[in-house]
Protein 1
Amino acid sequence: MRVGDGRWAMKELKGSERKQLRGMAHGLEPVCYVGKNGLTEVFLESVRSALAHHELIKVKFVEWKEERKEWSERIAAETDSNLVGLIGNIAIFYREQPDEERRKISLESGVRSPEEEQR
């Protein structure tokens, strides 16, 4: 669902859905890293791109570890995603693919597509 400014509206996740997504993310490697440059627009665009492709990603804080909680919330807000969890220096983000045919994760059943299972 699009909101007035053209961005996608995030669906609020239930606790059971967050738990399910954290379990799915367990075997994933981080795809984006927060380094010395912090939260640049280039970094945020790479997170948006990763979410569009994977739906569920991990972001690792290599630097700025003290700011990870606040910055994780900011990343979620700026990328229209949900912060699923923050474990140590790794944040887990989820954004549902708006196109049902391209969707890899179904929260109702916890089903992942065969492509997602191979990752």
Protein 2
Amino acid sequence: MADPRVVTAGALVQHDPDEVTMLHFDRSADTPTLAPIDTILLPRVPVAVITSAWSITGPDSLLTLDNPAIVSATTTAIRISGGTLGRIYSVSNKIGFNTNPSRIADASFRVLVQA
């Protein structure tokens, strides 16, 4: 398997149905920033993704997602395989952050299956 491809929200990814593709989803645009706080009383904690859930919609159920992961504070990962030639699928990733109050963000990209 080749190195992971980095994708961003709204991207169109080309995928060969005979290959297994590892994707890193850059979620830095969704990562909230915290206002400065009094570090004597409350130490500042870097904002990071702590939960990640994946879903897929498309013309059929032949595109498969597996091996979900959180690879950094702003990046999640998923492995895709299969799919129907010429079809487009939407892959969504809902993430949660270590903020208080907690924050959730949902974003997606599309997968075009081509040989």
Protein 3
Amino acid sequence: MEFGLPLIPSGLFFSWLTSQIGAILVNINLAYRLHELEYVLFQSSCTAVVIAPEFKTSNYTQMMVDLAPELQDSEPGQLKAEK
């Protein structure tokens, strides 16, 4: 599971929640740019990504759509991305 939420109550709750279900949590640096995010997602072989829509000057929703345009048209849990 990839995790890109700032240290706010929902981020802390999510961190605790993943420990309760036994998921492996990989934190994403919130300062990553697109090519760095792509590298981390590819290297981790994650099966789930949880992000804040945006934080400061970074729009994570748009970054994910840029990496996998199929996100806009796929049903939850049914993403078939090229990369």
